[in-house]
Amino acid sequence: MLRSGATRSLTQSLLRSPTVSFRNTSTIALVQAQSKARTLQSQLQPPSSRAINPYKQPSRALQRYASTHPGTPFDHIDKRHEKDVAKTEIEPHPEAVSTLSSVRQVMHEEGVEDKERDVDMLAGVKADLKTIRETFSMSEVPREALVLGMAGVLPYLGTSISTVYLAWDINHAALTGSGFLLSGQKAELLLHIIEPLQIGYGAVILSFLGAIHWGLEWAKYGGKHGYPRYAIGVVAPAIAWPTTLLPVEYALIAQFLAFNYLYFADARATRRGWAPHWYTTYRFALTFIVGASIVISLIGRGQIADKINRLPGPADRIKALRDSQMESLEAEEKERRAKIVSQEEDEEDE
């Protein structure tokens, strides 16, 4: 009501003013009156309305007055002005032509960007990707450590890929009677060679990761902390090497848990200032590659669990050695008793 009523009364007052007569004044005076009415009308509108509709048509009072009073400048055609306009050469503006220029709104201002149309729908996704890239950026990691660390995990990844291929070749031989590149027996033999290599190399990596904390303690990086930091270097090999005595699947699972535990310990050490600030990101990249390799190996072995013979592990060999020792002791005891019996028989005969 305030906007429509006040605007209508203000416009009617301007139209009835003796100083502004549309019958006797020129077109310029009429335009000035209309601009004053629009200015006052925009001032009376609330800010939200002006922000949404910055360009509005003339008020209904002006339109009604122009349509009901004949002879107004709206009905008068200035032929001289029309001829001058016809003689004016139109200048080309190719930069203003676009795919949307033919469907531009009538009240739309040329050169003003449509903010609603220019909204980037992927802004949130791009921001998230930028955050992830900055979080896992290894630009501050020394180049030597990065190159040697990535090269160190390549053998572990190579054993995992080899396990998957050999498992596929064993399955291929079981289905078709012959392997793709290797026979089923050769593939199984190579698989049994790769298994201890991967487990042993994993134990070496775990021991090396623990030894890093001994080096940081000797260098007094972040201060001298004594047994708490030395304990990390002791626990790592204490967990790693017993896995070599387990069956392959259990050994891989145990090493997977050990790698994650050491990453957690390294992250806590970095947060406490015991290691460089980039060490957590560096360790995450290496742990991710090693963990993915272990998962790949377990998946490959799961496909051939019922098609291969399990070779005796270290624990089986220890048990076999103990059994053989018991058997040899029993054999010696039997021989000793037999010898005693024979001696007693000889004495009786005499």
Question: What does this entry show, briefly?
Answer:
This protein has 350 residues and is mainly α.
Proportion of β residues? under 5%
Overall structural class, as computed from helix and strand content, comes to mainly alpha
Largest sheet: none
N-to-C SSE string, H for helix and E for strand: HHHHHHHHHHHH
* Helix residue percentage: 55-70%
**What spatial form do the alpha-carbon principal axes imply?**
elongated
Q: From the alpha carbons, calculate the radius of gyration and give it in angstroms.
A: 45 Å
> What average pLDDT do the residues reach?
76
Model regions low in confidence, pLDDT < 50 over at least 5 residues? 17-26, 47-55
Question: How far apart are the first and last residues' alpha carbons, in Å?
Answer: 144 Å
